[in-house]
Amino acid sequence: MPRIATVFLMMLMTIPASALHAEELKSTADDQQVLNLTIYNAGRALIRDQRKINSTQSYKQIAFMDVARTIIPQTVAIKGLDVLEQNYDYDLLSPQALIQKNIGRTVQLARRSNETGETLQWTQGTILSNNGGVILEMEDGSLESLNNNLNYDMVFAEVPNNLRVSPTLSLLLNKPTPINPTVEMTYLADGMSWQSDYIMQLNPTGDKASLDSWITLNNQSGIGYQDANLQLLAGDINIHQPEALPRMAMMMRAEKADSGVTEEALSGYHLYSIPHKTTINNNQSKQIKLFSAIDIPVNKTLRDKAHVDHRGAATQKSKPEQILAFTNTQPSLGLPLPKGILRVYTEDQQGYPQFIGEDGINHTAVNDALEITLGKVFDISLERKSTKLQKISKKQTRLSREILINNGSEMEQTIEVSEIMPTTTWDIQQSSWSYQRQSPREAEFKVKVPPLKKLTLTYSVLLTYP
Description:
Blueprint: E1 4-9, E2 25-27, E3 32-40, E4 44-52, E5 58-65, E6 77-79, E7 83-89, H1 95-101, E8 106-112, E9 119-129, E10 134-138, E11 143-155, E12 168-178, E13 182-190, E14 192-202, E15 208-219, E16 225-234, E17 262-266, E18 269-273, E19 278-280, E20 284-297, E21 299-307, E22 316-318, E23 321-327, E24 340-347, E25 353-361, E26 369-376, E27 380-391, E28 396-407, E29 413-420, E30 425-431, E31 436-439, E32 442-449, E33 453-464
């Protein structure tokens, strides 16, 4: 019967450098001369990697190492080489992968002392299995299963040809040829994104604001990018993806101020160029200033919307939302704004900035209006109810409504009170306050409520159903 010894695997991989794919020319990030990144906001980037390779020998194969782990291989374009085949090698070197690739091969084993770590015995064995644990056939025919009772190092002579130490693009050339000193590789990769983040600071009177815009970059592509020329494309680019992959979207644009960021129109989109080279490491988030603007006129309104309960059921209680509105116009702004998150601050009585709300904005062109929902007002409340329901016919109903508005603040408040009708055909026949038809279903009342007072708004509406 074969003897089964129980031992602990402590990996030591002694691999001669000459054994790593010796017949191909290797290029690493150290060869990079120019690195250009164009990043889209929903997880994709275009990488243009120009490398200088000095070689007087002729090679049939070349390995571009240090490419993104998330590279999309079918998007690769190579300038400077006559390529016959290209392969993306993503089976990376690891202890488990090294063992798996060496099944059936002989490896050296060094038994170590648990106390001192010194080598007690050298032997060798053939890896038979890595299914739930490493099993080796030793020179004497016995089997040894490696686990945590004894210390062993496994020493491998080389890295198998189908393992790489980093994500690698392997190229098979049409014929052996001296390598052009300058080779450019262009490809798309997932895992990189950007978004806009805005900081708005209201002045003490709340009628003007400053706005700072920041680019937030996120790199999860598997590698870092050193001293890269960075551009950002803003616009909703269509990207076709297999169902198994996440759907990608893109962004819009911006520009201005002393950050030096420049902007240009590009085929219906907008392209930002960062004036300085930047480094973004893998698994890193980085912020870059996009622009600053001051003295932007803003207007804060209170708005409360509710759907009309045509059955005359329970009282509807609500609090109005604070809406901060401004227009993207010159001279204070007038810049195409990429979608992102806008956060608003104001100063308290001691002059300290306080956060008062945030909202997402969509791509906003020059001269477009923007509305930011800050939150619900504390001191104002509304109670709605239907006081009378009269059936005129099968298709017509007359409804009487009552809205009680309580202003608990010490200032007069103007509130935009909107009633969303259950049908597009309606006629307000009597009302205690004037209104405007804002949409096919919406009636809006602009109501002024004195400080520390209550006001009741009433109206009667004829509803006609199709």
